[in-house]
Amino acid sequence: MTGPQTARRKRANGVESRRRILDATVEIAGERGYDGTSIAAVSAKCGLPASSIYWHFKDKDDLIAAVIERSFETWLAAVTLPGEEAGTPQERVALMAANVARSLVAEPDFLRLGLMLALERRPAEPRGRAVFLQVRAVAQQRVAEVVAELFPTLAEDDVQTLTTYAVAGADGLFVHREVNGDSVDLVTLFELHARLIYDAAARLAPPAGH
């Protein structure tokens, strides 16, 4: 018979195996991209047999999608406007942007891989690309909600324009750091980007009551 303790140990081992597989995939995919990632390479990296990987994931595409989903949850947590105790509205926006930048510095492979997939066109779209575009839409909606919360008189079109600009600018700053290396202070650049967008929103927003 299998007791509760044995069952718990099996579940814990399964969770740990999954974590090792995803960690290995992040590292390999970040270096080699989608095409350069294989189940064999992940197996060699994490030290688990291919059969263990296939037990958790249907195929490479399923594995890549899981990597993006896991990393996105951590990243999205940073896209949260701090409370009023954190300072003025502009200071709160800058702090949110700094937290997002720190999450990308700590785990850049998620966005690096996601952008690679987003820019590629294939006859059969990888599930990982579709997942990245879906979670990216969630992040964009979160940014739009922050803009609308801080500037409730802004027209919807202006909210969407500023949101698109914010996300596109963040992409550009991330790519700039990828090209130029760790000497680029992503946190400072994200803070500046957020302050400039805040100033633009303040200029566009009609005064309350108008």
Can you give keywords for this protein?
210 residues, mainly alpha, Arc Repressor Mutant, subunit A, Tetracycline Repressor, domain 2, 2 domains
Task: Describe this entry's structure for a reader.
The chain has 210 residues and is mainly α. The protein folds into 2 domains: 4-57, Arc Repressor Mutant, subunit A, CATH 1.10.10.60; 64-204, Tetracycline Repressor, domain 2, CATH 1.10.357. The protein contains 9 helices and no strands. The protein has helices spanning 4-32, 39-46, 50-56, 60-78, 89-106, 109-119, 127-150, 156-180, 186-204. Helix 1 crosses helix 4 (60-78) and helix 5 runs antiparallel to helix 9 (186-204). It starts with a helix and ends in a 6-residue tail after the last helix.
